[in-house]
Design goal:
This protein is of the alpha/beta class. The chain is 36% helix and 19% strand. It has twelve helices and 15 strands. The strands form four sheets. A seven-stranded parallel sheet has the order 3-2-1-4-5-8-12, sandwiched between helices. A three-stranded mixed sheet has the order 9-11-13. A three-stranded mixed sheet has the order 10-14-15. The C terminus is likely disordered. The chain binds nicotinamide-adenine-dinucleotide and sulfoquinovose-uridine-C1,5'-diphosphate. Sulfoquinovose-uridine-C1,5'-diphosphate binds next to helix 8, strand 10 and strand 11.
């Protein structure tokens, strides 16, 4: 299949490009290096050293004998997007090409507007390019579990049957996102749903949980093939950050009580889920929604999992409770349905199965690259400023039961 990967220089995009290329698909990636430029702006960097696309692609050719085509350009440029679609004529489009950070979108008005412009405009261009040049193609769009927020009812997969004043309908599940970034995903979902209904496009919206992990079968082949791995307050996700903090000797940064529950999945399972969606495409006119995660944990549980794993490799870890820089529910009900991908054949990997040790070993390999100043949070949801570092409230000495699912 001809697979176009938008955001193919990113954490998930580069890993996906190699995965599909190895499986024999014809793969092209698109990226404008925005993520690298955002790191420059924040004074942060990927833990893993990563090369630019021309070097990555030639290293991949050398190691695998396979070719990945690449287009360097901006999805917010219609001229660029239309040229790529006309030249490559994708059958499947995997759309990762957005700004993925909740904290970054909450820095100030400029970062919120940039995130909205980048994400919503880019996706609109993709929808129009599909309509005009590849109407049969299947869009596999990375959304987020954060679109739903944490309602006090079970979260369905995209849609809910509602009975109102004696009448029934199946409608999009109510959305209560927790940041301007998460809101862009909600807006994208509405635009995609409209395009499917109006133009008969086909799409799968993958509402993904928080991804962890550093390694895939392909990145293991050669260090020149590593994907990015972020741990700073803007771009690092909780578990990846905890692993770096453990190795750097910085107390793990639990925000607030740490009782917030999220869905998590291994980067290897992201690859599996995207492949399952691609091999079982949506119907024309349909926007399917899959909730993409394999396990739920409170942040506190994650911290103790990392602490225990680090102990096995001789590292003593402290856990600390920080004043929560975000405005979010800390004690909440959380029970999202996630059966669609399992029904298609997803074989989940579980966090406790040595993953943490294998991440920690890799982090140790690149320990000298850790920028310690990038770890402790400064960005707050409440004010537009970037004040002093968020205060450390107390050390967490023992594991307390999480209220997950109460
Ligand atoms: P990433 O930042 O590593 O990758 C995104 C890539 O898209 C970057 O390389 C960036 O340069 C590129 N990009 C952004 N805007 C672009 C534009 N206008 N034109 C061209 N390229 C552009 O992020 P990631 O962690 O790989 O996430 C990929 C996608 O998955 C994102 O849409 C994110 O919201 C979603 N997602 C990620 C996670 C996670 O935990 N990593 C969880 C749920 C959803
Ligand atoms: N958290 C901590 N300490 C940290 C970092 C985070 O306690 O050092 C907490 C946060 O307060 C939050 C939870 O951990 O309650 C998850 O935070 P995160 O930064 O790991 O994830 P989030 O901001 O939600 O965003 C990430 C990705 C985003 C994706 C989202 C999926 O960056 O692209 O959309 O996960 S989800 O969380 O399901 O919305």
């Amino acid at each position: 299949m001809r697979v176009l990967i938008l955001g193919g220089d990113g954490y998930l995009g580069w890993a996906t490009a190699m995965y599909f290329s190895r499986k024999g698909h014809e793969v092209a990636v698109v990226d404008n290096y925005l993520r690298r430029r955002m790191h420059l702006e924040r004074g942060t960097d990927s833990l893993t050293p990563i090369q630019l696309l021309p070097q990555r692609v030639s290293a991949w050719r050398e190691v695998s004998g396979k070719t990945i085509e690449f287009f360097v350009g901006d999805l917010t440029s219609w001229d660029f997007v239309s040229r790529v679609f006309k030249e490559f004529r994708p059958e499947a489009i995997i759309h990762y090409g957005e700004i993925p950070s909740a904290p970054y979108s909450m820095i100030d008005v400029h970062h919120a507007v940039h995130t909205h412009h980048n994400n919503v405009t880019g996706t609109l261009h993709v929808l129009f390019a599909m309509r005009d040049f590849t109407p049969e193609a299947h869009l596999i769009k990375l959304g987020t579990m954060g679109e739903y927020g944490q309602p006090n009812i079970d979260i369905e997969e995209g849609y809910i049957e509602i009975e109102h004043k004696g009448r029934k309908d199946v409608l999009p599940f109510p959305k209560q996102p927790g940041s301007f970034y998460h809101l862009t995903k909600v807006h994208d979902s509405h635009n995609i749903y409209f395009a499917c209904r109006t133009w008969g496009l086909r799409s799968t919206d993958l509402n993904q949980g928080v991804v962890y992990g550093i390694e895939t079968e392909e990145t293991k082949l050669d260090d020149r093939l590593l994907t990015r791995f972020d741990y700073d307050e803007s771009f690092g996700t909780a578990l990846n950050r905890f692993c770096v903090q453990a190795v750097a000797g910085i107390p793990l940064t639990l925000y607030g009580s740490g009782t917030q529950v999220r869905g998590y999945l291994n980067i290897l399972d992201t690859l599996q889920c995207v492949e399952l969606a691609m091999m079982h495409p949506a119907e024309r006119g349909q926007m399917r929604v899959f909730n993409q995660f394999t396990e739920s944990f409170s942040v506190r549980e994650l911290a103790f999992i990392v602490k225990n794993a680090a102990k096995k490799v001789g590292i003593d870890v402290e856990i600390a409770q920080y004043e929560n820089p975000r405005v979010e529910k800390e004690n909440h009900y959380y029970n999202p349905v996630h059966s669609n991908l399992l029904d298609l054949g997803l074989k989940p990997r579980y966090l406790q199965e040595s993953l943490v040790e294998s991440v920690i070993q890799r982090v140790i390999q690149f320990k000298d690259r850790i920028i310690a100043d990038a770890i402790v949070p400064r960005i707050r949801w409440q004010s537009g400023e970037q004040p002093e570092k968020v205060a450390l409230k107390e050390k967490v000495e023992e594991e307390k039961p999480s209220p997950a699912g109460d």
